[in-house]
Amino acid sequence: MEPAAGPAVVLVRPQLSENIGTAARAMLNAGLSDMRLVAPRPNWLNDKAVAASSGADAVLHGARVFDSTAAAIADLRRVWATTGRNRYMVKPVHTPRQAAAAMRAAGAAGDRCGVLFGPERTGLENDDVSLADTVLFVPLNPAFSSLNLAQAVLVVGYEWYQAGDEAAAPAAMTKGAGRPATKEHLTGFFDHLERELDACGFLRNAEKRPSMVRNIRNMFDRAELTEQEVRTLHGIVHELVTWRGKKGEGGA
Amino acid sequence: MEPAAGPAVVLVRPQLSENIGTAARAMLNAGLSDMRLVAPRPNWLNDKAVAASSGADAVLHGARVFDSTAAAIADLRRVWATTGRNRYMVKPVHTPRQAAAAMRAAGAAGDRCGVLFGPERTGLENDDVSLADTVLFVPLNPAFSSLNLAQAVLVVGYEWYQAGDEAAAPAAMTKGAGRPATKEHLTGFFDHLERELDACGFLRNAEKRPSMVRNIRNMFDRAELTEQEVRTLHGIVHELVTWRGKKGEGGA
């Protein structure tokens, strides 16, 4: 039987080769093998990484390297961002168990997923978190919560692995309209919308622009847009800005 | 409310001080603090252990030392023995999840429990396993299952933590979500958007208009928009349309 494809594990700007190695080891414990690195240090694949992987070096050798988080997740349709603390943005939150159930359902539908892990000391930047559709928060002792990178990867992978046998796929939303859009497709729409919002001056406040952009993206992310809906939104934006000679000059 | 007493974590003949430290850290992540060591090396509580505990040194300082496994578990009424491979003995086997449920039930009844972890390289001797009533087996990739001591402690502790009342799933939304918009507020936005889409001709197909309108509303409904977000969308529509007026005739 084909093993269900597990989530990609995306390490964003990982700092130590050794931690990339231990993360690979944690992945393979859970049967995961799709490792993606965003802007790792040069020569990350060294003896330290291999030694730390304790036999999981195949995962290291198969790891793909990307320049940006967006590029690393372009082909994925569901992405979780791990955070260690509350972020002041509006996004749904999953525990690893909830995420695992959703990952299994997505896998059954052929939708690839992934999980973002940030740099060891600082965690993910808000801009990275906003690229995901869901935040993943590991509920542990609030008085002392300090998982290292490999442990975080392990907990997520462990829950995914556990969710394989017994978990019936949770009731997915009845869409009927098709598959969730890929992150690349979504980004295309965001770029289009933001281009027009820049042109019309909606985003003219340079200081507020980053958080406004994040908030708008979060809003659309939560809708779990299908490919068809993304096309519709492209059309809406285009037609709203296209003059059709029905109004006088000077705008509404 | 008194926190539920968690299982004692019993390290049998642990080899490296550093691993005792990382085990303490894993324990505290899960809210566990009862550490017991069976025949550790002399001077195990050294700088390496403290450093590796990353702030969980209180667990180290509270750890009790015993000469034998039997002595370490004398006061316990339920004991699990972790194993990494099949043991040829007749004992019930629990996954960490099953064990956690039993631990919670035992805790509620006032019965103290504990979990045995063996030396890092070799695992528990059969004689140690036989002192337990249940074997604890962490189900992971059978082709590659190599949890280190801290990871094994973490998985067991994590499951115990999840199984408690207090580990309710975190709020469905991150902080800063604001209140969901009222239906009236949402309808106001839909009316605004549809008015403009009618004006620009996007909804000109009379036969398709009803389903197009429904699909657009469904999409925004799924985002579970807050009041602030509805205001933002009003602003986006208004400014895109106003820009259209300023771009001049002939369209984009």
Description:
Two copies of one chain form a homodimer. With 252 residues, the first copy, chain A, is α/β, with parallel strands linked by helices. Chain A has helices at 17-29, 47-53, 57-61, 69-72, 96-108, 126-131, 149-162, 183-199, 209-222, 227-241, and strands at 8-12, 35-38, 64-66, 78-82, 93-94, 113-117, 134-136. Chain A has two domains: 3-172, Alpha/beta knot; 181-248, Helicase, Ruva Protein, domain 3 (Orthogonal Bundle), CATH 1.10.8. A seven-stranded parallel β-sheet of chain A has the order 3-2-1-6-4-7-5. In chain A, helix 1 (17-29) links the parallel strand 1 and strand 2 (35-38). Chain A is globular and about 60 Å long. The interface between A and B is large, with 77 and 76 residues.
**Uncertain stretches of 5 or more adjacent residues of chain A:** 167-175, 245-252
Specify the number of helices of chain A.
10
CATH class of the largest domain in chain A: Alpha Beta
CATH superfamily of the largest domain in chain A: SPOUT methyltransferase, trefoil knot domain
Radius of gyration of chain A: 20 Å
Please state roughly what percent of the residues of chain A sit in beta strands, choosing from under 5%, 5-15%, 15-25%, 25-35%, 35-45% or over 45%. Answer: 5-15%
Main interface: chain pair and counts: A-B, 77 and 76 residues
Biggest sheet details of chain A: 7 strands, parallel
- What is the overall pLDDT average of chain A? 88
> What is the subunit organization of this protein?
homodimer
**Helices and strands of chain A, in N-to-C order?**
EHEHHEHEEHEHEHHHH
Class by alpha and beta content of chain A: alpha/beta
Which overall shape of chain A is indicated by the principal axes computed on the Cα atoms? globular
How many strands appear in the DSSP assignment of chain A? 7
Strand order of the largest sheet of chain A: 3-2-1-6-4-7-5
